[in-house]
Structure formats: C-alpha cells, structure tokens
Amino acid sequence: MSEITAASAEQFDGIGQVNAAIIQLDQMTQQNASLAEVFRLQPEAA
Fold first, then answer.
1. One digit per residue, pLDDT tens: the chain, 46 residues?
2. DSSP structure class, residue 29
C-alpha cells in the first residue's frame, strides 16, 4: 500500500510541474501577443 501512496505522490508532483510549465507558456504567449500588437500599431520606418 505504501508503494501506491508513493507513486500517487510522485504523480501529483509531476502534474504540478506540468501545470506550472503550462502557466509559464501561457504567460509567454500572452506577452508575445501583446508585443505583436505593439509592433502592429507602430508606424513603418521609412
């Protein structure tokens, strides 16, 4: 039974790491979208 508990804890930790990575990717995607909008609104250099 303790093996199942240990495996569950490892799985829980792994899911937490994946969740943190997804949040970080989402933040970077939103930042890139914001930067793209800023560049889109910039007048072209002649």
1. 899 999 999 999 999 999 999 999 999 999 999 999 999 999 876 5
2. H
